[in-house]
Amino acid sequence: MSELCSFPDFEKIKDEINRKEKLLLNYVPVYIVLPIFGIVAEDNKNAELEETKKRLKRLKEEACIDGVMVDVWWGIVESEDPKKYKWEGYKELFKMIMSLELKIHVIMSFHKSSENGKTIGLPNWIVQYGKANPDIYYTDRNGFPDEGCLSLGVDNKPLFDDGNGKKRTAIKVYSDFMSSFKDNMIEFLEDGVIVAIEVGLGPNGELCYPSFPKEERKKGGETQQEWKTSGIGEFQCYDKYLKEDYEDNANDKQKQKVDLSDEKEFGNYNSKPGKTKFFKKNGTYTTETGKFFLEWYSNKLILHGDQVLREANKIFNGLKIDLVAKVSGVHWFYNHHSHAAELTAGYYNLDNKKKKKEEEGEGEGEGEGEGEGEGEGEGEGERDNRDGYSPIARMLYKRNCVLSFSCLEMKAINHISKEPFSSPEKLVKAVLSRAWKKGIEVIGANTWEINDADGYNQVLLNARPKGSNPKGKPKFKVHSFMCLRLSENLFKTNYDMFKDFVRKMHANLDYCGDAEMYPHEVESNSAITTEEILDASTVTKASEPIEWDKETDSKVHG
């Protein structure tokens, strides 16, 4: 007697496929960030290509990562002469990554980077020009230039050679570089290997001023002090181009100018807010003179981002990739009434709510100045609220860009001893909420390497702040996550925890390599005007952050 054939239960299979398709909408792709140095060296060679390939292959097979993030350095590709681009090293790298079936998130890195005695600088021809005209760099009150990137003051100044006897603006220099990248990497762009291009907009590639430099600046034989953790930083508008712009703007609008040369007004990199005229309680930043300066300073930054991203839109128009811009996570005075560190970085962000620490008199007692830390005080309620992140979000919406933001692993409790006004959690909620409310996607990243379950779980919470949704797309979800950084330490320290983290980011699903899920076609929402962007600073109910769950529903266990 023959056995009866058993047929699969097609209804169960159909239900399981439907369940996985719904869960797939909760899937957050995870990219590993490649090391800054040694991937493509200054000689345009890949000295560590085989070792990098071995590590990435292991991460793909064992941890199921989705892709890699890689810096494409202006200082390497266009190093010697204007418009003489060398792409060989990056082509070789991209071919290797493609062979592993990983996606690539590229950064157009128009900045300098130094770490542990190693440096990738700006192109030599830029450095030589900067020796003759240091005003091409952001400059602080004492005249020390930051040679890490070009000042936005030269965006539209025809100062730079094109190799044929003509002069280019900084915007044209960036545009030419991106055009050459597109022409030389078109196969990777069209084949869905490169899925995102993050456009460098300032120091460390971020849309901000270099107000908290992490290395010494030099001028002649002098050396400037370094910024130290919890200092307010300094405004960076002292190159001749930005100074002229501020003075002209104030004169045209018949506004009183702040005295940019007054140290007592602004303090120095490591000052506390209460030791300055500008940031102390009811200080200059609350006056019409201070407000005008801060509006000018922050608006220049937003318009710089808009102008560079407009060029990127034109160049990559029609390609199925994400254009990305990164905002800096300046968290260490987020709980202070002045938000001083955000203001010097270019984020004109204020709120009028009482801060618990000020009410309790904590933190500012450390040399902050008389009267600080004793509560809000008379006149404090008259200060205007100011939404510093919605104008940036609206600008990115105009350019159809994705916002990149780090600090997703951070908690104030880990910083409170040195930074009593630090609140990375509140900052993350504020920035991500405003982006989502303006209709733009968010890419998350960590600031420091994660070595414990708390850090991974904080990322998981921020990645899906209202949890996963088994019935379909979650209410809020980051677009992808960039994990710092590929190294041998990743495999030696809690590697099993990292693999579990990736699995949880993937909503407990297997790797999904469908690149069509992620990027969208580059186009511009150009109907939005500049005035509408800048008007977004008005605080409304829409400025309030969304409500986060207290903890993630997808915990990694240590």
TrEMBL record:
SUPFAM superfamilies listed in its UniProt record: (Trans)glycosidases
Q: Where is this region: Disordered?
A: 356-386
GO molecular function: any one?
beta-amylase activity
Q: Which top EC class is given?
A: hydrolase
Q: Which reaction is recorded as catalysed by this protein?
A: Hydrolysis of (1->4)-alpha-D-glucosidic linkages in polysaccharides so as to remove successive maltose units from the non-reducing ends of the chains
**Known EC number(s)?**
3.2.1.2
Record keywords: Carbohydrate metabolism, Coiled coil, Glycosidase, Hydrolase, Polysaccharide degradation
Q: Where is composition skewed (Acidic residues) in this entry?
A: 360-379
GO BP terms, alphabetized: polysaccharide catabolic process
The family database entries (Pfam families) matched by this protein are listed as: Glyco_hydro_14
Please verify whether the record's keywords include Hydrolase: yes
Q: Which residues form a coiled coil?
A: 39-66
Does this entry carry the keyword rRNA-binding?
no
Q: Which family does it belong to?
A: Belongs to the glycosyl hydrolase 14 family.
This one is known as Beta-amylase
Taxonomy-wise, where does this protein's organism fall, top ranks first? Eukaryota, Viridiplantae, Streptophyta, Embryophyta, Tracheophyta
